[in-house]
Write a structure and sequence with these properties.
Blueprint: E1 4-6, H1 18-24, H2 38-49, E2 51-52, E3 57-58, E4 69-75, E5 78-83, E6 88-93, H3 98-104, H4 109-113, E7 116-122, H5 125-131, H6 134-156, E8 160-164, H7 169-176, E9 183-191
Antiparallel strand pairs: 1-6, 2-3, 4-5, 4-7, 5-6, 7-9, 8-9
Helix pairs in contact: 1-6, 2-6, 3-7, 5-6
């Protein structure tokens, strides 16, 4: 188990109306090297998979509350796993994996240039165990809900973001060292725009 970084409580009020965030949200692929603050990172991961006490539901809907998604954070200072119940990051690797991740994403250079990439990985059996093969659809739906939360949160923070679905699954799994039951299914790249 790696170092645990406790994140600040997420802001639940915000400074940008939801309607404004929806209106201005666009895919952005040109990022500056400016690093994000721990507060911004905490807000983005909370938007993706945050847990609200006391019932433990997350910010994105999940079929039967099966929560098949695991969220990984790739930054210049390493690889982290988001722990929703603790609103914390667990450091898994020290090295900068952004270049390798960009290669796994078929050479999309902005993956390396951006300060942060969120990788959603799914353990499909959590949902298919309850819903059979139809559960596969539910997992992808959940990933879409979670990613849209991230895009809207990025806008509210004055950041840009872009969805990435073009990548080699096995290569991403290898770069991140994912357990065999986890499959990468979606990435969101975020940062300050140039």
């Amino acid at each position: 188990m790696g170092t645990i970084i406790k994140l600040a409580e997420p802001d639940r009020k915000g400074s940008l109306a939801l309607e404004q965030a929806i209106a201005v949200r666009r895919s952005r692929r040109e990022f500056s090297a400016k690093q994000l603050t721990l507060e911004q990172i905490g807000q983005l991961v909370w938007a993706a998979q945050g847990q609200d006490a006391p019932r433990g539901y997350r910010t994105a809907p999940s079929a039967g509350a099966t929560y098949p998604l695991e969220l990984f954070v790739v930054m210049g200072d390493g690889l982290f796993h988001y722990l929703p119940g603790k609103h914390s990051l667990e450091k898994l690797k020290e090295q900068d994996l952004r270049g390798e991740l960009a290669l796994a994403a078929w050479g999309q250079e902005f993956v390396e240039a951006a300060p942060l990439t969120l990788v959603f990985a799914a353990q499909f059996s959590r949902t298919t165990g309850r819903y059979g093969q139809r559960g596969i659809r539910y997992v992808y739906m959940e990933a879409g809900h979670a990613a849209q939360n991230v895009h809207l949160q990025a806008e509210a923070l004055g950041l840009g973001s872009v969805a990435v679905g073009a990548f080699d699954d096995d290569s991403v799994s290898k770069v991140l060292g994912l357990a065999s039951e986890l499959e990468p299914i979606y990435m969101v790249v975020a940062g300050y725009c140039r």
